[in-house]
Design a protein that fits this description.
Radius of gyration: 17 Å
Structural class: mainly alpha
Order of helices and strands: HHHHHHHHHHHH
Helix content: over 70%
Number of strands: 0
Length: 256
């Protein structure tokens, strides 16, 4: 299990670096979309597979889409809390809601339900619908190297805490927490503090969009794992990329 933590400690800062640089180049919404992709969770499931076998990894992967319900609630909590609090209070509200939903899903057995995972995509679409819209164009801030390093360090610390808690509680909760808001903790904190609430709202919309690809990935991966083995990764990744391309095309069409 130690290698699972090692992978997450490496993947977390890497995702933050890529998302931060994407945000510097293309804006907060793109940073959120990259952060929402199943990059960290995919690494975790791969290591679980290697360390504990396909059955254990499949159980964790099966629970991962259900955790998107907790993510949807988390994003909405950040969006509304940011109206009243600074970045610390906003993250506190978000994490309280996230952990409440994630633990409920795992303890109630709902995380093991295929329907809970499948309907999580509807939950993300509903969250996109309910998410407040920016009231003004966000102000863009430069990304100094020191801040990029601070973001990566913050991601490492968040992943360390999250992994230590999850790995002690079995595959179902590990699966639910595999998609935990690592990037959605670090990036919103810096965005809200540096660029304001309007930029945060754009970023949260990007996260929810990216998480749709996360859900599609694991909903395809899990049932294919017993028969396809490692090859199940390829259709899952292809579906994730296709989902991202479709969403991007629709977003551009709507923006016109």
């Amino acid at each position: 299990m130690g290698s699972v933590i090692a992978v997450k400690l490496f993947a977390g800062p890497a995702v933050i670096a890529v998302a931060s640089l994407a945000g510097k180049r293309w804006g907060a919404a793109v940073a959120g979309m990259v952060g929402g992709l199943p990059l960290i969770a995919g690494c975790v499931i791969a290591v679980l597979w290697l360390e504990h076998g396909m059955a254990y990894a499949q159980q964790a992967a099966h629970a991962a889409p259900a955790g998107l319900w907790a993510n949807a609630v988390y994003m909405l909590a950040l969006a509304h809390a940011s109206r009243y609090f600074g970045w610390r209070g906003t993250l506190l509200c978000g994490w309280m809601m996230y952990l409440a939903v994630a633990v409920f899903l795992a303890q109630s057995g709902l995380a093991a339900s295929t329907w809970t995972g499948a309907t999580s995509l509807l939950g993300l679409l509903l969250a996109l619908r309910l998410l407040p819209h920016p009231t003004a164009p966000p102000r863009l801030q430069p990304l100094p190297r020191a801040e990029l390093g601070a973001r990566m360090l913050a991601a490492l610390l968040v992943v360390a805490v999250l992994s230590s808690a999850a790995l002690a509680l079995g595959p179902t909760l590990t699966g639910v927490l595999a998609g935990g808001p690592v990037a959605a903790t670090v990036l919103p904190a810096f965005t809200l503090a540096g660029s304001g609430r309007d930029a945060l709202l754009l970023q949260l919309r990007g996260f929810l969009t990216g998480l749709l690809g996360f859900g599609v990935c694991f909903l395809i991966l899990t049932p294919l794992m017993p028969g396809w083995g490692v090859a199940a990764v390829f259709p899952a990744v292809a579906a994730t990329l296709a989902c991202g391309a479709l969403i991007h095309a629709v977003s551009r069409r709507v923006a016109r």
